[in-house]
Amino acid sequence: MEDDAPVIYGLEFQARALTPQTAETDAIRFLVGTQSLKYDNQIHIIDFDDENNIINKNVLLHQAGEIWHISASPADKGVLATCYNKTSDSRVQACAAVWRMPKELESGSHESPDDPASTAQTLELLCHLDNGAHGNVACVVWEPMGDGKKVISLADSHILLWDLQASSSQAVLASSAALEGRGQLRFTAGRWSPHHNCTQVATASDTTLRGWDTRSMSQIYCIENAHGQLVRDLDFNPNKQYYLASCGDDCKVKFWDTRNVTEPVKTLEEHSHWVWSVRYNHSHDQLVLTGSSDSRVILSNMVSISSEPFGHLVDDDDVSDPEEHHTEKSKEPLQDNVIATYEEHEDSVYAVDWASADPWLFASLSYDGRLVINRVPRALKYHILL
Amino acid sequence: MAAAAAEGPGPGDSPEGPEADAPERRRKAHGMLKLYYGLSEGEAAGHSAGPDPLDPTDLNGAHFDPEVYLDKLRRECPLAQLMDSETDMVRQIRALDSDMQTLVYENYNKFISATDTIRKMKNDFRKMEDEMDRLATNMAVITNFSARISATLQDRHERITKLAGVHALLRKLQFLFELPSRLTKCVELGAYGQAVRYQGRARAVLQQYQHLPSFRAIQDDCQVITARLAQQLRQRFREGCSGAPEQAECVELLLALGEPAEELCEEFLAHARGRLEEELSSLETELGPSPPAPDVLEFTDRGGNGFVGGLCQVAAAYQELFAAQGPTGAQKLAAFARELGGRYFVLVERRLAQEQGGSDNSLLVRALDRFHRRLRAPGALLAAAGLSESATEIVERVARERLSHHLQGLRAAFLSCLTDVRQALAAPRLAGKEGPSLAELLANVSSSILSHIKASLASVHLFTAKEVSFSNKPYFRGEFCSQGVREGLIVGFIRSMCQTAQSFCDSPGEKGGATPPALLLLLSRLCLDYETATISYILTLTDEQFLVQDQSPVTPVSTLCAEARETARRLLTHYVKVQGLVISQMLRKSVETRDWLSTLEPRNVRAVMKRVVEDTTAIDVQVGLLYEEGVRKAQSSDSSKRTFSVYSSSRQQGRYAPSYTPSAPMDTNLLSNIQKLFSERIDVFSPVEFNKVSVLTGIIKISLKTLLECVRLRTFGRFGLQQVQVDCHFLQLYLWRFVADEELVHLLLDEVVASAALRCPDPVPMEPSVVEVICERG
Fold first, then answer.
1. For residue A39, which residues of chain B lie inside 8 Å, CB to CB?
2. Which residues of A touch B (CB under 8 A)?
3. Range B744-774 burial, b when 16+ CB lie within 10 A, else e
C-alpha cells in the first residue's frame, strides 16, 4: 500500500495562522493567514482536490495587518475571525475581528489563479472584537458546536466572551474574567471544549493550564506547571470529555485528565525543539498531530489513552457477520507509538490542523510559508477502520 | 668288664693315650656297660662310629673272628709284617695279662668291702621290714581313732554351722531392725547417698518377708523414712538453689529410691526450665529498653555461658539419668530444648536487631561467631531439637540484614557526598579565595565513595573469615558472596547510584533551580568514570575478596557499564538543557521585554549579550574542568569575520532590497531556502557526546534557537533591527570558538538577523564596518 506523496503549497509570505474551514463538511479546505509587515497580508483559501491531488487557491486581501491567528466559524462557511497586528509608528496593537468572505468563495468556486491581481478580493469586516482596555488579543475561539454566535477572545490577561448579533455584524461583550496573579500574565492559547454542552474553555498562560466555565466565567481547574516552560498550545480530546493535550517549549506533549491535575496521563518527548501546535483527530482521537520549531510534524498514535483503546468498537450491525467479529477480537491492542515524522518543512512549523471534511488528511504550515498536506498512512487507516 | 680289660690296650698304647683318650675311653666303657645291660646296640654303635662293629677282623669288635683275622693276615701280609704282628700280638697279650693282674690287685679290697656291705645290708633290711609292719599297724590304729573322733564331733560341727548361719541372719536382722534408726540418722545427717544405699540393700529382703508382721513393721518404718527421705530429696531438688550437678544427684538418688522416672523426668525438666528461664529473663532485662544494653559480644557471651551452658548441662544430665526412658524421653528433651532455644533465639534476635544500626561489624561477627559456636555443642547433643540449624538461620538472617544495612549506608554516604558537593558549590566564594574546583570535588566524591565501598566490603568480609565458625556453611560460601555481596551490595549500590543520579534529570523543578548544573556535570563525569574504570575495578575487587563459587547468574560488568554510561549521557544532556535554558531565558527576557519599535540607534552591544558570552565562557571553563576538549571541525582562523562579512553585505542586499513586484516575495526567501537545502537540519536538543565542545555546542544551539524564535514573535523598528545586528555580530565574534562547527553559529545567527529583518517594516541594516566598530569597542 503505497501512500500518496505529500502535497506542498508555497505562500509568498511568512505565515503562522492555519485553520480548516470548520463549517465545510464536503470539501477539504484550509485557510491560511500570512504575516508580512511590508505588504498587504492575505488569506489563502486552499482547496484540496483529494482525487486529483490538486490544490486550488483563492486569495483574499487582509489589509488590516499581519495575521497571528485565524479561526473559522463552525456554523457559517463564510465567516472567520482573525487576530492581527496593527502597526502604527512605534506601536504594535494586536486586534481581533470577525470577517465575511465574498459569497462566491465560500464554497470554493474555482476561479482561474492566473490573474491574481484582478481576483484579489477583500474581506468584509463584520465587527471588531476589541476593546482597547483589554490589551493584545492572542487568539479567538469559536464555540465548537453552536450556531456561530459565541466567541471567546483572549486578550493579554483577560478572557472575553462575545455574543455575535445581527448576523455577526455586532459583537457584544457578554462576560469576561481576568487572570489574577503576580507579574504580567498573558494568555498564549485557548480551546473551547466540545463536551459539557460547550460550557468549558481551557487556556494556557505561561506554564499553567486553566479551565473555565463560560457560564460563570470562573476557573474550574488549574494545572500549575503543566510544562517546564511556556505552554504553546492545547487541544481537547473530541471523544473523551476530560482529556486534553498540551504542548510547549519543553519539547513535550502532555496528555491530561482534568480530574487529576497533579500528573499528566502521558508524556511524549519526540520533538527536539518547542512544540507549537497539537491537534487531536476529530474522529479518531488516538491520532495526535504535533508541529514543532524543529521543522518536523509528528503524527502519533495514542491508543492507550484514546476512546478506542482496543481498536474500533464493533457496532451492533456488524455482529451479524461472525467472521468479521472474529477478526475484530483477534486484533492485538495497539501500542502507543509515533506513526510518522514528516520532514517536508525546512522552517519552524507553527501550525498543524486536521481537515474538517476528511479525517485522514491534515495540513501543516511552516514559517517560510510552506503548507504541506499529508494523509494518515493507509495501512494505519485501514487498521483503524477495519 | 673282662672284655674291656682284654681289649683296652689297643688304643691305650699311644703315648698320650691316657690323657687325650680319657673321654673316649670312658665312653667306650659306657658302651660296654650299655652292652652289658642290653641297652640298644644302635645307640652304643652310634657313638663309636669308627670301624664297622660287624667287621670280623676288628680286634676290638664284638664280632671278632680270629680265624678270619688270621686268614686275612696270612693272605695279605708278607712275612715280615706277619712276624711283626705276631710279636705285636704277643706283646699286647702280655700287656693285657699284666693289666688284668694289676686290676685285680688294685681292686681286691673293694671287692671284699663290697661283699661286707652287701651282707650288712641284708641284715638291716630284715630289721626295717619289721618296723614297717609295726608302722602299718599303728597307722591302722590311728585311722581307727580318727574315725571314732569324727563320728563323735559330727553332731557338734553341724550345730556350730547352724549357729554361724543364725548369727549372720541375726546380724542382718539387726541391720534391718536398726535400719529405721540408721536411716533416720542418715537423713538427719544429710547423708542421703548412704541412706539410699541402706534402703537399697534392705528393700528386697523386706519385700520378701513382708508377710511377717515384724518385718512388715520394719518395712513400714522404712517406707515412712524413705518417704521422708524422698520428700527431703525432693524438697532439696525443688529448692533448686543447689546447682545442676547436685540436682542431678538428687534425681539419681530418687531414681534409686524407685520413684517413678516419668514424673521425675517431668519435674527435672520443669526445674531446669525454671533455671533456664531465669537466665532468659536476666538476658531479657539486659535487653530492656531503659538500661544501656551491654555490648552484643558480652550479651551473647552471657547468653552462651548462662543459658546455652545450662542447657547443655541439663541435656547431658538428662541423657545420663533418663537414658532408660528411650525415644520418648529424648523427644521430651528435644521439645524442651526447642522451646527454650526458640525463646533464647527470640531474645538474641532482638538484641541483634538493636545492633543493626551499629557500624562495628567485627564485634557483631565475633558475637555471632560465639553464639553460633556455642550452640554447636547442644546441637550435637540434641540433634533433634534443630538448634544448630536455627542458629545458622539467625546468623544468615543477620548477615542479610547487615548487607542491606551496608547498602543503605552506601546510599546514605553517596547522598551525603552529594550534599557536601551541593554545599561546596553553594558556598559563597570569598574574594580571591577560590573554593575547591570541580575536579577536586569530583576526586573527593569518587574517593570517598570508593573508600566507603571498600570499608563495606571489608566489614562484610568478616562474615566469611576462615576462623568464624559459620563461614563454611553453604550459604556463606555461595549465596552470600554472589547474590548477597556482589549482586545485592555492590551491583545494587551502583544501580541505585545511577538511579539517584538520573532522578536529578527528572526533577520536577524543570525550570532549573532545583539541581545546581555543576552537580549534574560532576555526576555525569562520575558516572562516566565509573563506566570506564571504577565499576570493573570494584567488581574485580569484590570477586577477588569473595571467591564466588556459586553458579547463579550475576550481572555482567558490561551491563552495569552500559547503565552507567546511559546515566552519564542523560545527566550531561540534562546539563546542556539546563544551562541552555538559563541562557535562553536571559535572551528571551531581553527580547520580550524590550520595545523594539521605539528603540534608539545602537551604540553598544547590549549588556545581556555580554552576559551571555560571559556565562558561556564560565560554562566552558566549568565543563573544561571535567571533560576533554573534543573534536572541532578544522577551519581557518579568521573564518568568522569572512563569513560574517559575506552575509552582511551580499546576502543582505538580496534580501532587504525594497523592490516590490508580485514575484519578489519569493526571492526574499530564495537565498535562505537554497542555503537550507544544502545545510543539514539542526537538531537543537540533540544528544551530546562526552566532550566539552559537544556540550558547549548543545548549549549554544539551544540558546540561539530560542533567540531566533523570540525574534520572530516581535516587530522591530529600524534601530531595533540594527541592535539585533550588532548583538548577533558580537555573539558571532565570541561564540564560534566554543562550538564544534562554527558554521552552525553562523547559520543560526544569520537566521536571527534575517528573521529580524523580516519582522521589520523598515529594514535598513547598519553598515558592517560600524557594526564591527561597535562590537570591538565593547
1. 660, 665
2. 10, 12-14, 36-39, 85, 87, 89-92, 116-117, 225, 228-229, 250-251, 272-274, 293-295, 343, 346-348, 367-369
3. bbbbbbbbbbbbbbbbbbebebbebeebbeb
Alpha carbon distance B451, B453 (integer Å): 5
- Which residue, among B433, B699, B396, has the nearest Cα to B572 in the 3D structure? B699
Average pLDDT of span B468-488: 75
* Domain of residue A143, CATH code: 2.130.10.10
pLDDT in tens, B187-245: 777 777 777 777 777 777 777 777 777 777 777 777 777 777 777 777 777 665 556 66
Mean pLDDT in residue range A127-137: 75
C-alpha–C-alpha distance, residues B25 and B45, integer Å: 14
Query: B684–A348: do the CB atoms touch at under 8 Å?
Result: no
Q: Are residues A141 and A230 in the same domain?
A: no
What is the average per-residue pLDDT within A226-254? 89
Asked if residue A158 and residue A28 are part of one domain, the reply reads yes
Q: Which segment of A76-85, A195-204, A220-229, B739-748 scores lowest on mean pLDDT?
A: B739-748
ipTM of the assembly?
Answer: 0.85
Q: Radius of gyration (Cα) for chain B, nearest Å? A: 65
Chain B: residue whose CA lies nearest to A262: B508
Same-domain status, A192 and A209:
yes
Q: Of A158-167, A196-205, B297-306, B466-475, give the range with the top mean pLDDT.
A: A196-205
Which residues of B are less than 8 Å from A295 in CB distance?
681
Question: B666: nearest CA in chain A?
Answer: A12
Distance CA B442, CA B424 (A): 11
Residue in chain A lying closest to B714 (CA): A92
CA distances from B547 to B131, B236, B477 (A): 111, 58, 8
Q: What is the pLDDT of residue A115?
A: 47
- Measure Cα distances from A18 to A40, A359, B590 in Å: 18, 17, 29
CA nearest to B449, candidates B513, B496, B397, B379: B496
Mutate: best of B685, B701, B718, B759, partner A, most A CBs <10 A: B685
What average pLDDT does this structure show over A145-169?
82
Largest CA distance in chain A: 72
pLDDT in tens, B88-134: 889 999 999 999 999 888 888 888 999 999 999 999 999 999 999 99
Our CA-based measurement puts residue A228 at a distance from the nearest CA of chain B, in whole angstroms, of 5
- State the residue range of the domain holding A142: 8-106+120-178
In chain A, which residue ranges form alpha helices assigned H by DSSP? 103-106, 116-119, 322-330, 378-385
User: What is the number of structural domains in chain A?
Assistant: 2
Residue A323 lies in a domain: no
Instruction: Determine the pLDDT at residue B24.
Output: 58
Query: Which domains, and CATH codes, for chain B?
Result: 407-425+470-555 (no CATH), 580-628+685-777 (1.20.58)
Mean pLDDT score, B376-397: 71
Q: Name residues 588-617 of chain B within 8 A of A (Cβ).
A: 595, 597-598
**CB < 8 Å to B666, chain A:** 10, 12
Q: Which pLDDT value is given to residue B239?
A: 67
Q: Are residues A204 and A351 in the same domain?
A: yes
Using one digit for the tens of pLDDT, what is the confidence trace for A253-281? 999 998 888 888 888 888 888 899 999 99
Q: Are residues A216 and A351 in the same domain?
A: yes
Residues A30 and A154 in one domain: yes
Contact B686 A272 (CB under 8 A): yes
Query: Containing H/E element for A151?
Result: strand A150-155
In angstroms, what separates the C-alpha of B597 from chain A's closest C-alpha? Answer: 5
Q: Are A174 and A230 within one domain? A: no
Same domain, A214 and A278: yes
Is A85–B662 a contact, with Cβ atoms under 8 angstroms apart? no
Q: Are B471 and B464 in contact (CB under 8 A)?
A: yes
